Amino acid sequence: ELLNSLRLMFSRLSSHRCPNGHYVKPSINVAAMNGELICPECGEHFYAPGAEDLAFNSTGACKCCGGTGIVRTVDMDSLVPNDSLTIDEGAVAPWNSLMWSLMTEVCRAKGVRTDVPFRDLTEREKEIVYHGPAEKKHIFYHPKGSNQAGELDFTYFNAVYTVENALAKVKDEKGMKRVEKFLKEVVCPECHGTRLSEEARAPRLMGISLADACRMTLKDSIVWVKHVPESLPEEMRNMARNICESYLEVAARLMDLGLGYLTLDRASSTLSTGERQRMQLARAVRNRTTGVLYVLDEPSIGLHPANIVGLNGVMHDLIRDGNSVILVDHDTQILKESDWLIEMGRGAGADGGAVIAEGTIHDVAENKGSVIGPYLSGAAVGRSKPERKPDFSDGAIHMETGSIHTVKPLTVDIPKHRLTVITGVSGSGKTTMVLESLVPALEALCYDKRMPDHVRKIEANGIHQVKLIDATPIGVNVRSTVATYANVHDELRKIYGRTAEAKRLGCKAGDFSYNTGSLRCPVCDGTGTISLDVQFLPDVDIPCPECRGSRYGKQANLLRYANKDGEELSL
């Protein structure tokens, strides 16, 4: 939301460009009412852009990329993924999945050899495949698996145009999935990733454009904004100070939370978990509220101990303003800041659900029934393990990368058959190095995928698979459960399908599936919940009144299996 203030600065306080390319100095006429400007050099009358005209999600968007800063273009490397194949064997991938197979015949009619490995074609032949003109050719076509054949005239679609044509005709997500494997995202050649149109990039404030200001880090932008008022004519300074103060007030919260290194144009999708949480927190508390209860669920996740200091500071600011704060957390560095601590436990699931300790930090630390108490008092200091010396005797994974986001070019060696931990303050590049560099590079080696452009070298002899375990929700759809994901449900269905009662009723293992089986609840269709349409409000999901959330119909309850203790249970 800092952009709101920046756009207002550049709309009201800038030197604006006339249609003939001349700049008009800042004036109170524009600052106060967006009045008409007259170019002192050419006499052209024009109006300065408003704040909305400088927004990349409005009229200030780059016409080429639509305000995204990126464009999709054909990935040339994807067109012929295996150049050892001949065109007849399907070397040109888009012709196989996006176009009729007869394009091979048309290509042959244009003089391209289709029965030799693609790598052995001449440069002229390859150029025809990739960029050949759309000429009509008379061909004899015999579809595979058919006894029919015939002559016809058909227009040649080269490999690149095949993809572009398919992209233009995409109407749904399924169609997009067929095309997107042949596409790549690149920085927009028109706006160079700034998302702004040429007109929106034109105003100048203290010698720079709005795009230049967005490239600054938050810390540098604060220094720049503080100097804006004094750079303007005297009659504009009061207005400038008011606009700048709103920017500095929002920025101060982000600085308190240790985010001063972020550039203002950083895509939110590239932020780490800790960065996203602190951004959300800063947005929630940017206004001086009072009498508000703030509830935060584990805000310390992903944060380095050094970043928690700023987080605690924000909590204390909220309390001083007359608010209340509830934190769900486990980090003792945060817990020790609390005025009152409530501990649930002792265990998880059936072993939890009770308050086992509450009070001040001292009270809980001295409570014999508390699990967290010994950690608060220091009594549970773990025994340190003997220092381990670096051991690369089993080899190493070696990686070299170029710069990406905030991560500079780096070289790293990771020992094989060892436990390696990546640490550092939030935003230092841990996730980028591992999830955007190491894992994709290893996947490129193991699964013949495309190597990330910024990875310069990767060596991983003996590594054949990569398994990423992250916080992504498990399961492929809303019907997934722990049982289905862990394949336990498949075994249970087999067991119940073998019972005598199931055989008598003609039920097989497949009938016990609550996705497609005949025994699933007919009311909720095996989801366990139904959705109620509440007018003017979001839909409300409630447990199915028929199966009470079990997902199975009444007949399934009649089919029981006796466990080793003789207890009969339904699935």
Summarize the structure.
The protein contains 21 helices and 19 strands. It has 571 residues and is of the alpha+beta class.
Radius of gyration: 32 Å
Shape: globular
- What share of residues is helical? 25-40%
Termini separation comes to 52 Å
Poorly predicted ranges (pLDDT <50, ≥5 residues)? none
Query: Would you report the number of β strands?
Result: 19
Structural class: alpha+beta
Number of helical runs?
A: 21
Strand order of the largest sheet: 14-13-15
Taking the sheet with the most strands, its summary is:
3 strands, antiparallel
Strand proportion, as a percent range, falls in 5-15%
Write the layout of secondary structure elements.
Elements: H1 2-12, E1 16-17, E2 23-24, H2 28-33, E3 36-38, E4 45-47, E5 70-74, H3 76-79, H4 93-97, H5 103-109, H6 123-131, E6 136-141, E7 150-155, H7 159-168, H8 173-180, E8 183-187, H9 210-214, H10 218-226, H11 237-256, H12 273-284, E9 293-297, H13 305-320, E10 324-328, H14 332-335, E11 341-345, E12 354-359, H15 361-366, H16 373-377, E13 396-401, E14 410-415, H17 430-447, E15 455-459, H18 482-485, H19 488-497, H20 500-505, E16 529-532, E17 540-543, H21 554-558, E18 560-562, E19 568-570
Parallel strand pairs: 9-10
Antiparallel strand pairs: 1-2, 3-4, 5-8, 6-7, 11-12, 13-14, 13-15, 16-17, 18-19
